[in-house]
Amino acid sequence: MKTKTNIKETVTNYAVGDFLIRVKNVAMAKNKEIVVKSNKKLVAISEALKKMGFVDSIKNEKGILTVTLTFKNKQPRLMDLKLISKPGLRVYMGVDELEAKKGPSVLLVSTPKGMTSSLKAIKDRLGGEAIAEIW
């Protein structure tokens, strides 16, 4: 017997923001897994989060994206998240602005070479759209 994945069919204007807030809510509830409808941008964000160490595994099958969060000492690595760019206000940062950003948080940046962390963007000397701040 086949198991049916229960995905809520929601219509959203900003799929990236919706996905990131869902990830934050799952982490705050100390659950390990989130299942959403897949698209290229969400897969790229998930891969970037995996490289940053916030996500343990990603499974993309038949248009369904399953993301498993990383836990350390029964606590999620992703403590909080704040959206920076929104549909009504896109925020772009150059390398100098990314370097000036201080604190323990890291930015999720959409660069011409794909989604990456602010640390990697600074290393590669790339600017781009600041999607979210994660700590």
UniProtKB/TrEMBL annotation:
One of its GO terms (molecular function) is structural constituent of ribosome. One of its GO terms (cellular component) is ribonucleoprotein complex. GO terms for biological process: translation. Pfam families: Ribosomal_S8. InterPro entries: Ribosomal_uS8, Ribosomal_uS8_sf. The keyword Metal-binding does not apply. Gene3D superfamilies: 3.30.1370.30, 3.30.1490.10. Belongs to the universal ribosomal protein uS8 family. This is Small ribosomal subunit protein uS8. It comes from Candidatus Woesebacteria bacterium GW2011_GWB1_40_12.
